[in-house]
Design goal:
about 100 residues; mainly beta
Length: about 100
Amino acid sequence: MRMRIQRASWPRNALILTDTPRPDCPDCDGNGGFEYDYGDHNGEYAGTEWDPCQCWNENRRWLLTPLPRLPRWLRRCRPVRDPWAANGYSDEPPF
């Protein structure tokens, strides 16, 4: 197993430990699976399908630690204004 740490945002913010594909796999060349296009009954492109390789289990993951939520006052989106510009916008070029 080749483990790496990732940040998950659903169902809650957390750090998780996940498995990665084997980099020297002769079947998938380290990509973790096979991607192929398929068509509909008219022969037109209908989408892309992905099949995982046997060298990797994409569902193998462990929760390391949940991350705290930001306070509500930090989650609010406030526009950043230039206090020296008229109405918060500058007419000067950036150089």
